[in-house]
Specification:
By secondary structure, the chain is of the alpha/beta class. 43% of the residues lie in helices and 18% in strands. The protein has a 3-stranded parallel beta sheet with strand order 2-1-3. Helix 1 links the parallel strand 1 and strand 2. The radius of gyration is 13 Å and the shape is globular. The termini are far apart.
């Protein structure tokens, strides 16, 4: 039997209850989840490259300097 690799999802959602619920559901399905409340927090995680991220799951409309589409653009440029 081979070793299964656990995929890590970066979940970006500004609404805490929604973020908690989605993170719970993903963890129940075997994913590791890193949570971020804003796009800038997500960029901090991605920029460190300390943990390989398999998928970024983001809200589109978020408060702050960047929204989900800005995060998508940044991710495409840097990863």
């Amino acid at each position: 039997m081979g070793v299964l690799k656990q995929h890590t999802i970066l979940l970006v959602e500004d609404e805490p209850l929604i973020r908690m619920d989605i993170a719970f559901q993903l963890r129940q399905r075997g994913f590791a989840v890193i949570e971020a409340a804003r796009a800038t927090e997500a960029i901090d995680v991605l920029a460190t490259r300390a943990i390989p991220i398999s998928l970024v799951l983001t809200d589109v409309q978020m408060p702050g300097e960047m929204d989900g589409l800005d995060l998508l653009r940044w991710t495409r440029e840097h990863h």
